[in-house]
Amino acid sequence: MQRIYEPQDLMEGELLLTMLASEGIEAHLSGRHLVGGIGELPICGLLGVMVDDLQAERAQQLIAAYNAAQPLPSDEPEDTQGVLIC
């Protein structure tokens, strides 16, 4: 297995695992159980997306596409763009 990506947080890591699984790539999030130790452990480098060596290149391509994605244009008025309206 190869560590191919370091997510910013647990939520991004779980999102990427789900995205990769939807593409047929089995992945593992290393360090997920260490997140509760922040303060006593280093804050960076705890999490890592791990995939099989044979699927690493495809997984990296998918994650690169995820990171390059732009939000879809919306019909929001200009004065409320970026504001969560409930």
From TrEMBL:
Pfam families: DUF2007
Domain DUF2007: 1-65
Protein origin, superkingdom: Bacteria
This protein's name: DUF2007 domain-containing protein
Source organism per UniProt: Pseudomonas taeanensis MS-3
